[in-house]
Amino acid sequence: VDNERKDLDLNNKDIDADKMTRFVRINELRLVTEYNPVTAIGVMQSSLELNLLLITDKMSPKHPERMRNYRAAAELFKGKILFVLIDINLKSNERIVDYFKLKKSQLPALAIFHVPDEEQEVWTLDELSVDGVQDFCNRFLQ
């Protein structure tokens, strides 16, 4: 997403499979990056200053359709906004839900976050459409 290259020093003698896997996981960013303890470093170190978080339940029957639309919207903002998926079923993600002052009953939600000044906006939603995500992002960008 960032078009920034990171190199792993393969001349270092302590490189093993675990360290190489960790390097790749930290530095790979897809159109939608699932937030977890492994990808957190890559998300936090991204040069993109805007993060759009889809805070949702991955076990929901609506999840596959939401993800299709979320990925399609991510294509429209590639290189401008980092699209992140937050699974509310992970205990480690509860603090993120608390940070945006959301309750589980208000989810799924989109939260857009401008990293430098911590400006944010939250949109609770029933349906996740490409047009809805695009409008939400464009309003925030303006």
From TrEMBL:
<dbReference type="Pfam" id="PF13848">
    <property type="entry name" value="Thioredoxin_6"/>
</dbReference>
<dbReference type="GO" id="GO:0034976">
    <property type="term" value="P:response to endoplasmic reticulum stress"/>
</dbReference>
<dbReference type="InterPro" id="IPR036249">
    <property type="entry name" value="Thioredoxin-like_sf"/>
</dbReference>
<dbReference type="GO" id="GO:0005783">
    <property type="term" value="C:endoplasmic reticulum"/>
</dbReference>
<comment type="similarity">
    <text>Belongs to the protein disulfide isomerase family.</text>
</comment>
<protein>
    <submittedName>
        <fullName>ERP27 protein</fullName>
    </submittedName>
</protein>
<dbReference type="GO" id="GO:0006457">
    <property type="term" value="P:protein folding"/>
</dbReference>
